[in-house]
Write a structure and sequence with these properties.
The protein is mainly β. The chain is built from 2 helices and 31 strands.
């Protein structure tokens, strides 16, 4: 209509010019504005959307990492990862004790009563005191003792310790079938602490008292066996070494002679030989502190997260996390308990890591089941406050992996008759269960892009404002901040004024009216092709424990989009 009016005016001007007799019939029309601008108000954009269901991004049915679990009777999504705790051998290095070395002791009895006199018939020489003999030192030296052994109160050996004392009469005239020789009232210093049932042995002092020890073929032999050593309060291991010292030798005694038809010698030569066998310790009673390091648990890898959890803005504070651990105690039958803690190290894509530690658990008996940060029938509950934050590190997104360790599993205490060597393995299984909830501090981002709205007509519209109305329903237990950002035909987001594209949907809101007026920060919008919906869920307060599940949704329907601006074209 306007174009027709403009043409008619130009024709009228031509007629008037001719009639006035103007001789210049050439007209310059280059300065005439041939464009026309039409104001556009509430131009409806053809949006073919029945509804937008933002829960589609939570469709995790085919995700290997995230499973559906039942929490409080409701089906919820949870990161579930489990595995085996690889066997770790409980082994205490054995102890070998070398044979101590002794030198023979030679001594003589001089001035034998009646010495040098021919003795016809039988003659009983009065008992003669043995001279003083220096005692010899010995040491049971234990080197490179296992670090786990702190105090050895007593030890039992694999084979008996054999102790032998031989008193040899070296005077040949006395050695014969017609003579009887014996040692009487002997007090022999032996290693102290021997565990033996030998009569006359004092374990505390090591003194053995013998009333009569006969000489046979020129030798009086004493042999005793011990099944171990009672070290009492002297068995403290220092820097992997333990030395048990003492002395051996003849403290006192007499020699008794009964001879027949000989010339009684005036001097008797005697030699004392001592020997103690080497031995291997089989078990001990005392204090142990065994630190079992390096228990192998495969890390939890989070490299297959659904797209809505892969945003660097995502921050999950787990509402009802739990770790279930079943572990075997290899020394439970020996009444030795283990103590340790679960340590989780979360490794984030930006190179940072965060470590969280549980409270200490006690591994008693043959087998124990623990539930960290939860209550579960049949499991011992252990506090683990940091478990809620294992997926959280500010704006770093979710971790790419979580390392699981049982750190410093320590078996410490007093034991009785505890064996050395390989005693079995600490092994078991674990399950990590992290419901994707909205604990305090959680941030979850849902996004959906709707495009293809552009057309030749819409491309000529300079848009000052985009009006979007819809109805939003959600059964999320927390409020949702809804934002809408326009995009152009290249899929690029168009910068808008911060307050113009935001709307808050209340928790459990149903058919909540949404009304947004969107303005660009850089003047009129051209090549408008669609919008990007973003629902940001933030749980900033404590108390909520509900997890994301298949039934939770954010739905936009009755979506209507209109634009204000102006339509500009060339004539």
């Amino acid at each position: 209509m306007k174009r027709q009016t403009l043409v008619s005016g130009l024709l009228s001007l031509t007629v008037v010019s001719v009639m006035t007799g103007c001789v210049d019939d050439k007209y310059d029309l280059s300065d005439i504005d041939t464009t026309s601008r039409f104001t556009v108000d509430n131009l409806t954009v053809p949006v073919n959307i029945s509804e937008i269901r933002l829960e589609n991004v939570v469709n995790l049915d085919d995700n290997d990492l995230i499973e559906k679990v039942m929490i409080d009777g409701k089906e919820c999504y949870s990161i579930v990862k489990g595995g085996e705790i690889a066997p770790k051998e409980f082994s205490i290095q054995g102890i070998h004790v070398n044979q101590p070395t002794f030198q023979p002791s030679n001594f003589a009895i001089n001035n034998v009563p009646g010495g040098g006199i021919s003795v016809p018939g039988q003659y009983d020489v009065p008992p003669i005191d043995l001279p003083h003999i220096d005692l010899q030192k010995y040491e049971f030296k234990m080197s490179h003792v296992d670090d786990a052994l702190k105090v050895l109160n007593n030890v039992k050996t694999q084979k008996d310790i054999e102790i032998k004392v031989v008193l040899s009469v070296l005077t040949p005239e006395l050695v014969g079938s017609n003579n009887n020789i014996s040692f009487q009232g002997l007090k022999i210093q032996l290693p102290w602490g021997l565990i033996t049932d030998t009569e006359g042995y004092d374990k505390k002092t090591g003194m053995l008292t013998i009333g009569n020890l006969p000489v046979v073929d020129g030798k009086a032999t004493l042999s005793i066996k011990a099944s171990g050593l009672d070290l009492e309060d002297k068995g403290t291991v220092v820097d992997g070494n333990l030395g048990i010292e003492g002395k051996v030798g003849i403290e006192e005694g007499k020699i008794k002679l009964s001879v027949k038809d000989i010339v009684l010698p005036s001097k008797i030569d005697i030699r004392a030989d001592y020997s103690v066998s080497s031995f291997d310790i089989a078990s001990f009673s005392g204090d142990v502190d065994y630190n079992m390091q390096g228990i192998s648990i495969a890390p939890i890898t989070l490299n297959d997260l659904p797209s809505f959890l892969d945003s660097p803005e995502t921050n999950i504070v787990i509402a009802n996390p739990q770790i279930l651990v079943s572990i075997k105690n290899p020394v439970g039958k020996k009444n030795l308990n283990g103590q340790g803690r679960i340590i989780l190290k979360s490794n984030f894509k930006n190179g940072t890591s965060v470590t969280h530690e549980s409270d200490i658990f006690t591994l008693s008996g043959d087998h124990s089941d623990f539930a960290f940060c939860t209550e579960k029938t049949g499991y011992t509950p252990i506090a683990f406050d940091g478990l809620r934050y294992v997926l959280s590190n500010g704006n770093a997104g979710l971790p790419s992996s979580v390392e699981v360790n049982i750190d410093d599993l320590r078996f410490e205490g007093h034991v009785t008759d505890f064996p050395l060597g390989d005693l079995g393995s600490a092994e078991g299984s674990y399950e990590f269960n992290a419901p994707l909830g909205f604990g305090e501090g959680s941030i979850v981002i849902y996004e959906s892009t709707e495009n293809g709205w552009g057309s030749d007509t819409l491309d000529d519209v300079n848009i000052n404002k985009i009006h979007l109305t819809a109805k939003c329903s959600t059964d999320l237990p927390v409020s949702v901040q809804l934002s809408v950002t326009p995009i152009d035909k290249n899929g690029k987001e168009i910068a808008i004024k911060e307050e113009s594209g935001l709307f808050e949907v209340p928790a459990h809101g149903q058919d909540t009216p949404v009304s947004l007026s969107i303005e660009s920060v850089n003047g009129p919008i051209r090549n408008f092709d669609g919008v990007k919906f973003r629902a940001e869920v933030r749980q900033m307060s404590a108390g909520n424990t509900q997890a994301i599940g298949p039934d939770l949704h954010i739905i936009l329907n009755d979506i209507r989009v209109t634009v204000d601006g102006y339509y500009e074209t060339d004539f």
